[in-house]
């Protein structure tokens, strides 16, 4: 009894968060459609590369490994489809598991970690830079700033603007003098941008893939029902 | 399957490859659509060249290039949606996420690695050690020539690195992962084992000094020509363009499941390098990938290079006789 309760508790807890990587839903079967007919009509979806499945009277369990992009259900790695009796008649219910949804959900954390790593490395570099190295970098930058850049006569003739040291560098030198020295080129900004992109993509994917697979099942069941 | 003889090789014996430009389908649809997809590539190239050539110094900077790059990629994604080359290559949410993950790695952790062990670090170390200056005469050349040379020097190196990856088993281990993709989309160029992504980025450009505007022009040329390697858009590519630049057609042959087809079209931007060295095949293929279209998970993409290398080493060490690495099963035929 206790074990059963504990099991139930675990399931409830899992269900509380497993919507992140699980898609659940249901589709009504066409009037008069049996479980066997319904599974027959969904059958082609499980004949893709890397897909294995088992079928009983009212349940279909599938698993996908290394599924190609062309597989209409490639976003899912395994799932259970069941025919149940609903209030309006038989219903196909499904629970589909997706590793890529979980991956996309966690990806922002990974990129935030990359961002923090960039900051840490930049700080470490600044702390460990010898005075000689600092002097060399400053000398190089000064030389770069004072350098007169040549312009070829052809470019002058064609009207290209006369070259000068990039403004961006000067600006940085004035406003972000310290940033320049510490970890040159190590900015956490791209990592934060990608963290944001993946958070957004997760929301899009969670909604989109839910709808797409629902539509796929509904079309398969109804289309074939019409055809038959 | 019989295949088609190209030079001394038979292309398309293992998997379908369309050989010859005359056999490649044209853009279908109304006059505007055909006009647009015939002229888009040259117009984009020359417009950006003109922009970077004449833009005032206050605009001609890296941040502008980044925004233009993002906008251009967004536009190409829209074109993939409007006029796909193959329905079977249509971008899905999952593919987009995976591709973007690798793009993200390039901008973050790989950038960090490059900061310590990239080719620019090596070049700077050599210059400091031997008190060498950058080759300053380079900046005295006309802008467009500088831009072209920047690209050519990099692409020439990349050609041999890429060809090496298809012909030497240890390098092939790093590159093979990229060949498990089953469709081409604009971000697919970023997909691969991080070791390969690091290797393919190596170059000797650091030895040359060049004008900032020349670098921006080189970036613009690279973006408006090389990006089409991995794109799912049907274009009517001008004859001169496909003679000079790599195209999706060329690169799809390179990614085909046909062994000989995959050992063609190695250059990144300039397909004439392949023409010079006899590795160019003009054509296209729809069926891409390895092992009959097996798609690797991200985890396997990350580990395959090392696990396969380890397996091979164990086999080699387990052998009683000597022999080279090329004698090993699996090691004998890289670039499948």
What's the gist of this structure?
The complex is a heterodimer of chains A (228) and B (336). A five-stranded antiparallel β-sheet of chain A has the order 1-5-4-3-2, covered by helices on one side.
How would you describe this structure to a colleague?
The complex is a heterodimer of chains A (228) and B (336). Chain A is of the alpha+beta class and 228 residues long. Chain A has helices at 2-18, 35-42, 99-128, 131-146, 153-158, 167-175, 177-181, 189-227; strands spanning 22-28, 51-55, 59-64, 78-86, 89-97. Among the domains of chain A are: 19-102 and 205-227, TATA-Binding Protein, CATH 3.30.310.80; 132-181, no CATH class. A five-stranded antiparallel beta sheet of chain A has the order 1-5-4-3-2, covered by helices on one side. The longest helix of chain A is centred in the C-terminal third of the chain and has 39 residues, at 189-227. Chain B is mostly helical. At the A-B interface, α3, α5 and α8 of A face α3 and α4 of B.
């Amino acid at each position: 009894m206790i074990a059963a309760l504990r099991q139930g508790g675990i399931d409830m807890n899992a269900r509380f968060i497993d919507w992140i990587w699980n898609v659940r839903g249901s589709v009504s079967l066409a009037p008069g459609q049996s479980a066997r007919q319904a599974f027959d009509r969904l059958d082609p979806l499980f004949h893709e590369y890397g897909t294995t499945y088992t079928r009983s009277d009212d349940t279909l369990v599938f698993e996908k490994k290394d599924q190609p992009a062309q597989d209409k259900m490639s976003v899912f790695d395994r799932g259970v489809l069941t025919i149940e009796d609903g209030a309006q008649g038989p219903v196909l219910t499904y629970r589909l598991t997706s590793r890529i949804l979980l991956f996309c959900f966690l990806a922002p954390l990974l990129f935030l970690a990359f961002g923090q790593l960039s900051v840490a490395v930049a700080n470490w570099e600044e702390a460990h830079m010898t005075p000689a190295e600092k002097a060399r970098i400053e000398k190089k930058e000064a030389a770069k700033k004072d350098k007169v850049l040549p312009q070829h006569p052809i470019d002058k003739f064609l009207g290209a603007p006369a070259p000068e040291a990039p403004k961006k560098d000067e600006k940085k030198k004035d406003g972000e003098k310290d940033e320049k020295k510490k970890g040159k080129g190590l900015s956490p900004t791209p990592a934060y941008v990608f963290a944001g992109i993946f958070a957004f993509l997760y929301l899009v994917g969670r909604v989109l893939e839910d709808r797409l697979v629902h539509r796929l099942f509904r079309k398969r069941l109804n289309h074939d029902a019409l055809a038959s | 399957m019989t295949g088609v003889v190209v030079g001394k090789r038979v292309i398309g014996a293992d998997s379908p490859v369309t050989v010859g430009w005359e056999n490649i389908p044209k853009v279908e649809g109304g006059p505007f659509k055909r006009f647009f997809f015939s002229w888009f590539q040259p117009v984009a190239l020359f417009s950006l060249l003109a922009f970077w050539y004449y833009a005032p110094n206050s605009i001609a900077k890296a941040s502008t290039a980044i925004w233009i790059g993002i906008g251009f990629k967004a536009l190409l994604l829209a074109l993939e949606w409007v006029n796909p080359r193959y329905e079977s290559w249509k971008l899905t949410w999952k593919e987009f996420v995976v591709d973007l993950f690798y793009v993200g790695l390039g901008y973050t952790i790989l950038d960090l690695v490059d900061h310590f062990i990239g080719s620019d670090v090596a070049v700077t170390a050599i210059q400091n050690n031997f008190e060498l200056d950058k080759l300053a005469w380079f900046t005295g050349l006309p802008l467009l020539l500088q831009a072209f040379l920047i690209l050519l020097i990099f692409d020439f190196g990349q050609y041999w690195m890429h060809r090496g990856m298809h012909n030497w088993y240890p390098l092939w281990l790093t590159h093979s992962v990229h060949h498990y993709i089953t469709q081409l989309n604009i971000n697919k160029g970023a997909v691969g084992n991080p070791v390969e992504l690091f290797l393919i980025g190596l170059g000797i450009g650091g030895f040359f000094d060049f004008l900032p505007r020349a670098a921006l022009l080189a970036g613009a040329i690279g973006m408006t020509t090389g990006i089409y390697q991995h794109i799912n858009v049907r274009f009517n590519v001008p004859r001169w363009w496909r003679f000079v630049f790599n195209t999706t057609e060329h690169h799809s042959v390179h990614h085909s499941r046909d062994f000989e087809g995959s050992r063609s079209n190695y250059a990144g931007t300039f397909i004439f390098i392949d023409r010079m060295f006899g590795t160019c095949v003009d054509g296209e293929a729809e069926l891409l990938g390895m092992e009959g279209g097996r798609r690797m998970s991200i985890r396997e993409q990350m580990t395959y290079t090392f696990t396969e290398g380890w397996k091979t080493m164990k086999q080699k060490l387990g052998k009683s006789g000597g022999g080279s690495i090329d004698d090993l099963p699996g090691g004998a035929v890289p670039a499948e």
